[in-house]
Amino acid sequence: MSNLRSLTFDAIIIGGGGAGLRAALELAKSGKKTAVLSKVFPTRSHTVSAQGGITCAIASADPNDDWRWHMYDTVKGGDYIADQDAAEYMCSEGPKAVFELEHMGLPFSRFDNGRIYQRPFGGQSKNFGEGGQAARTCAAADRTGHALLHTLYQNNLKNNTTFLNEWYAVDLVKNANGDVVGCIAMDIETGDVVHVKSKATVLATGGSGRIYASTTNALINTGDGIGMALRAGFPMQDMEMWQFHPTGIYGAGTLVTEGCRGEGGYLINKDGERFMERYAPNAKDLAGRDVVARSMVMEILEGRGCGEKGDHVYLKLDHLGEEVLGKRLPGIVELSKTFAHVDPAKEPIPVVPTCHYMMGGVPTNVHGQAIMQDAEGNDKIINGLFACGEAACVSVHGANRLGGNSLLDLVVFGRAAGMFIESALNEGIEYLEASESDVESAMKRMNRWNESESGETVPELKRDLQDIMQNAFGVFRQEDNMQKGVKQLAELRERINNAYLPDKSNTFNTARVEALELDNLMEVAEATAVAALERKESRGAHSRYDYPDRDDVNWLKHSMYFPAEKRLGQREVNFAPKTVDMFEPKVRTY
Amino acid sequence: MVTNVTNFGRSGLSDWLVQRVSAIILALYSLFIVGYLLLHPGLDYMTWNGLFAQTWMRIFSLLAFVSLAAHAWVGLWTVTTDYLKPTGIRIATQTVIILAIFVFLVWGIQVLWGA
Amino acid sequence: MSKLQVSLYRYNPETDSAPYMEEFQVDTQGRDLMVLDVLHLVKEQDNGLAYRRSCREGVCGSDGMNMNGKNGLACITPLSEVVKKGKLTLRPLPGLPVIRDLVVDMGLFYKQYERIQPYLQNDQPAPAIERLQSPEERDKLDGLYECILCACCSTACPSFWWNPDKFVGPAGLLQAYRFLADSRDEATRERLAELEDPFSVFRCRGIMNCVAVCPKGLNPTRAIGKIREMLLANAT
Q: Does the residue B6 lie in any domain?
């Protein structure tokens, strides 16, 4: 085992989605020896599924738009536990990052004056909530993620980035000082296992929506980066914060963009009532996603749901007319015909809140440097480890992400991480080499699966995990239910530790990849469960029957989950933006 | 750009144009011959010989022959590059084809202008 | 009972000397599942089955395969659309080397994509904001930029089967035209020069299999026609 082949890079980026490719582009331009390691060909990453757009104050729809208004919306949307220095950085740097994408060739839709088309999205306002609905989401029809991901991949080709496509990162390698100095990775096609040595390891592995039974996420969203970091002993931040997107197609779980409501669509209950007028009199269907999702569940629980079982509501689009649908929402027309057997030009689409986005993740600063806490609870940089995109928690999304902010997060912080790593490499980075036993310990779980001889198999364990999470940690949560969930997860972990991989072949063994992914789902699920149980308040996406109110005295904080003790601690939220006054926490209404 | 040495124009565009222009000429020539035969049901050698004694018919025929040669070459070159993967066999076949086309063309000219 | 008979192309180079077809019975419980769902059910019976999948909604392009003789995406092809006489036959995309089961080596396909320089080229200094583009100019990119690189078209194309190393193929050419048609791109002349040899574009014989199978409803043949027109107009 010790004579593992090794590859050496200045920086290794794990994940070929928007964040990883944006970071890679920055490093490739700098001439550093960089590689992107992705378990799928990069354009198959989940960024490709993003539809509605990238929210940014580029002042196209409204020439007076201001990034500070966007920052205000973001902080308010996050129910005030978004870090204000990070939100400030994202919203102010955003226009630069979006214009760069356009210059790279991203085929944005256009206004008549030739500028980038922007549409209204949920939670957007002008003048710090005083000036009514804003239209701030830059779009390429309803295929913005696809256009963005392909553009980034194309520009990485232009800049000769090295790609390790269809390689799977197994675990992080730490040296004797606890610095991250690379990872163990497997070439899926051949089964070759390699020790990747690197001065900077970037986790850009995206989300983990597959911990839930019903999710808009791709099948590959298994929280691989989160799992690796947790197994390496690093803490996770705000893992209880999971966004349930209001409009997942009923039954299939596929996403229907918020842009539908931005273009004028709205939700109705079985009586045909536009019920959001009751829950959010001003913003209506364009309130924050957590607010809309909760309102939908309330309608269903109170017996006003649609369909035979009364377990969903309708998204009405037919009044927009075929022309608008064809021009602005062509992908949605396709998806709803395929997955709901409904032509939205004629009938409403059956929708239900569906797990969509992980606000939590690896805590980082605005440069993407991963953070842990020392014994006194102070922030401490983890040498060699970086994170960006959904896997990271900068945190710009706080307790609830605004629509269109994830694509902006990807490019702004992917770029920031790339720039920081470049300058750090220029200044020189030297860490202790990993010893044989360091590498050996990173190989542990891979060896465990390879040596397994009997036990339960992956598909049934995965299904059990998803059911536990769906039942106990959904839109509404409560103590007893969650306690039961935590207990079930502890049992499940035992079962997974004794599970069996029947197929031990080397060539494109997807069963082995799925087994390794299951370990990561388990890590994410447990972190989520412990954090959700311990945060005894309702804030943003985390809503509890037993603690229905926000508790700013005790919980105007990030949660920090420590995997070794399975303990939940806290971390201070940043209220010190550099160029603007901070936004005081206020009651959050739409 | 895919480099290649065995086709004449070394340009897909010119091959493509040649193929289409030669096709039109061949179509016109065929129509003319068929029409002529229909208009002359009891055609005898003298009339036929008389037709080909005229300069314009000789030029028209020569044009058709050249078109046929070009059309055949482009078409067969494409077919051989599609289906004959071993280089030796392909080059040999192409050589045979080009020689055959050359012989037929010269022979055709000789028939037209010869004794 | 609603048993579906699924016939699957199997090949694992470590254990099989040659590929073979294997039969499975899948209980669909009467539902009109997508082909990808059926594959999940088969994989629960035989964990070793290999296929690619990611978004399961037809935008990532991972699960292109040959279903009852026609290329398409497993995740957006319902059984009702493809099953004939209660039987479903699944094979890997034709014309590319098989790595294992339904997984093909896409190397040649990607190489042809890279060859057309699939990125915007414009050496003018970028403005402080975006480059302007009228809605009409932008409309020209519709039907082009949506390609998901699933390879259904190129692997349905006989010209690509015979010359996968020289003919760019419908997917690559669609992208070639996507950049030729972009008002912001300035490398038109160079792009055309790279394409005018007898293989890259001109090996297209207008068979139109690409159009028949494209799961996104795109039309590579039309794009190839447009490239030919541009080559002609550009020639002296």
A: no
